[in-house]
Structure formats: C-alpha cells, structure tokens
Amino acid sequence: MRALALALLLVSGAAAAAPVDAPPGASSCSGCHGRHGEGAFGPLAGKPADEIAAALAAYRSGAHPASVMTRIAKGFTEPESRAIAEYLSHQEAP
Amino acid sequence: MTRTTRRSLLGGLAGLTLARPALAQGAAGRVVVLGGGFGGASAARALRQAGLPVTLIEAEETYVACPFSNEVIVGLQPMAAQRFGYEGLSAAGVTVVRARATGIDGNAKRVALADGGSVPYDRLILSPGIALRFDALPGYDEAAAEVMPHAWKAGAQTELLSRQLAAMPDGGTVVMSVPGNPYRCPPGPYERASLIAHLLKTTKPRAKLIVLDAKDTFSKQKLFQAAWKALYPDHLEYVPLAGGGQVTAVDPGGMTVKTDFQDYKADVACIIPPQRAAPIAASAGVADRTGWCPIDPVSFESRLVPGIHVIGDAAIAGAMPKSAFSANAQAKVCAQAVIDLLSGRAPGAPKLINTCYSLVAPGYGISVAGVYQPANGVLADVEGAGGTSPLDAGPEVRVEEANEAAAWYRTITGDVFG
Fold first, then answer.
1. Which pTM was predicted?
2. Given a cut of 60, is residue B23 above it in pLDDT?
3. B332–A22: do the CB atoms touch at under 8 Å?
4. Do B219 and B368 touch, CB atoms closer than 8 A?
5. Per-residue pLDDT at A94
6. Which of B39, B170, B295, B390 gives a 20 to 30 Å CA spacing to B49?
7. What share of chain A is helix, strand, coil (3-state, %, to 5)?
8. Residues in A 54-83 with any Cβ partner in B closer than 8 A
9. How far apart are CA B293 and CA B28, in angstroms?
10. What is the 3-state secondary structure (H, E, C) of B376-409?
C-alpha cells in the first residue's frame, strides 16, 4: 500500500513537475504548520498551490495586518511564494 | 572511505537510489548529530526523513523544553508538559545513542564519549545549547544558583524558582537580573517578569517585582512596556541600564543583588547570568573568543573547523535570535546543506523564518517574527519583513496570539519529538 502510494506520488509528481527540494523558506513553515503541514494553524499539506499562493499574496498585501503571517509573507517575493506553495501542495497529507 | 571509492560505490548503487526520497539522492556519508534539543532533534528528524542514516548523541534520557517554562514557574502549565523522550525519534529510524560526549576531534572526525568509545562522522551537526557563565557575575556561581535560581535551563531550576515564588509571603520582593546581549531567548526575561507580576497581582497583591536590566532596549519592548503599564503598575518596576539596572554582584547569603548605585534586598532572586555556547563547542575549537560559534550562513558549517556544522543557540546566526523556532528552522536548512555537500552539490542560499510568542498574562499574547537570508557572510534580516504585533491591536488579537502561542508549542514539540 505504502509502495503503491509512493509510486503514485512519484508518477503524479513527475507529471506535475513537482519541486523536490524545499525552495528557500519552505522548510521553516513546519515550525508552526507541522512537518506535513498538519499543525494547529491550519493544514497546508496537499492544499492546492493556487490557494496557498493566493493566501500568501493576501498576507503580503497587508489584508490581515494583525497576523504574524503578514510580517512573514513580506519576506518573500511573488515567485518565491509561488515556489513555496507548489512545494507544500505536493507534501503528503497526514 | 576515500572520495573516489565513495563515488564508485555510488555508481554501483545508482539503481537503488530511486527508492530513496529525492532529497537525499546521491548523498553518502556518516552524519552524526550531537545534542538532542530543538536544533539537534530537528536535524536528526530531517535527515532521517530524507532517507539518510543518522546517529543522534544525547546525554539525557528526557529533554526538558524551555519555551513555556515561564508558564510552569507561575503555575500556568504543568512541568510534565515540558518533558519529551526520544522514543519518537527512535521510531522514526534515528539511531539514538544515549551518552555524554567528552570531546570532538575535528581532524580525525570523531566524537569521543564518556564511556571511552567514539563515534566517527563525515559531517557532524553540533547543537549543544548554552552554558551559563558562573565566572561573569561576582558571587554568582553554581552554589549561588541553588539559592538564586537562573531557571534559564528548564528542569530542576524551573521547579526551584516556582517553589520559591509560591512560598514567598505577601509583601515580599522578587528581584530579577537580566543580562546584556546575546543570550538564549531575547524576550524570555520580559515574559517571565510579566508572568511573575501576574502571579503577584493575583495571589500576593502587596508583593513587588524589580527587574534589573543590563541593557536599555529589548525584544518587543514597546508591547511589553505598554502591557506592564496597563496590567502591573503596582507590581513591576523596571530598571534599565541607564537607570542603574546593571547588576554588578550578588550575595546569596544575604539575599542581596547589587548594582553600582544600590543594594536590592530580595525575598526571591532570579539571576539570569551571561551565557556562552556549551563547553563542548570550545573544546572542539568551534567557539571563538566571544564564546559563541561563527558559522557560514548558507550551510551552518563552522568557520573554524571544517566538517562541523553548528546550529541553535550556540551559533552566531546574525540577526536570527536564539530561539527554539530558530533552532528548528536552522536544523532543516543545515540538514539540506549536509545532504547537498555529501552529494557533491553546493548548497543553495536559504531563507529562514523565526516566530516567537510571549505571554504577558493569561489570554494576552504578543509576537515577533523575522525572515532571514545570507548577506555579506551573515544571516541578515530580509528588509520590509518581520516585526512585532501591532501596538494598537485590540484584546481579541492578544487572545488570538495567546492561543497561537499554545498551538505553536503543541505543534513544534509534536513535530520534533513526537
């Protein structure tokens, strides 16, 4: 079962040209969101990349000024945010 | 094993590497992690997750976490919530060696153990944490710490300070001494001061806390001071360096904390002394004259001894504060860099995040965050990012951040040790 899941992941990953190494900044996310993006701050693993990228863009624009994510998202450009979103969307959901 | 034979071996195993997660493809070598705190445990976990065999050397059977230990001191969190074993890491496939390391030979690439054995490595990730300096403040040695606890390493010291505060009569005086930079957890002393003031206000209303600081500015200062003014005007007196706050000596026999200007008589004294990297760092030659460890900001490899990477509180990480979040973030970047180096690739420039929450009262949380990247040889702030919670935020934001603080602690400890 595990092998099948891995094989499927590899196939789907290859088809979508999934990024394999964490792009700059992405490995820090698990400090709050958990290793597989499953943390108490809302799951990120397996979420659509567009959704994550849009959320990061909203934070970057200052739409939620009180959130710590506003201060973090401003440290990443749009392409960097997109790469992080792609990476997280390809993490296995718990 | 020489580089040539390792390469040829890799060639022979090329077909097998497909079964490995992509992250560690091609990496070959013995990776040893020394120190099982937030940094070391995170690094071991990340390397294992990438498919590398990894050995973690740790002297203690149980780790006692510092974040949230201020809450333990004032009875808002049970001590049991600070303790974590290494079973989770073992179950994840990390070889956990419970042993005290006595030295590191950077030339022979071996870690010497107290039992006479040694562990060879190709790359060592050193996450040794801090040592409290018992040579820095006249009168404050290890015996004095049993009378005037630092409680800056969680464990027996945390419980000692907690007991002393609980036993102190109403009308008593608590004196805290805060060191100059750098030290573990920059906002930690001010969170502790806040929560002790909360304890006094709610259980010993005639008692008072005096905070003597060796500096004039500190992390989340405006937020802390606004909260102190609003919540603890009668219970917390803050004395900055400019006001004569630098402690110059202590007398545990007379329970006196001394500055150049005044002697403060204490019923309970919490003395947080200056710090340095844990002694193994100096004995390995990776600590410089400051007592801390200079590192390359891309790979965290020591500037002084090749093959040893230093992460966490012991490292000189530029703008990154010495925090559990930083140690965890550095561990993951360092693990990736070690994999790259063992694969013959140059590690790419990373970005790292830090987030630190502090409680100033139950249900009143504040935060600071930062994003960092290598610049001019150090980890520097990414401009335009980071900062503290808004000064003018309403109570709902403070409640939310207090909840986030608790959620962060649950998540990161589960992530690292679970």
1. 0.92
2. no
3. yes
4. yes
5. 62
6. B295
7. 55, 0, 45
8. 65-66, 68, 71-76, 80
9. 26
10. CCEEEECCCCCEECCCCCCHHHHHHHHHHHHHHH
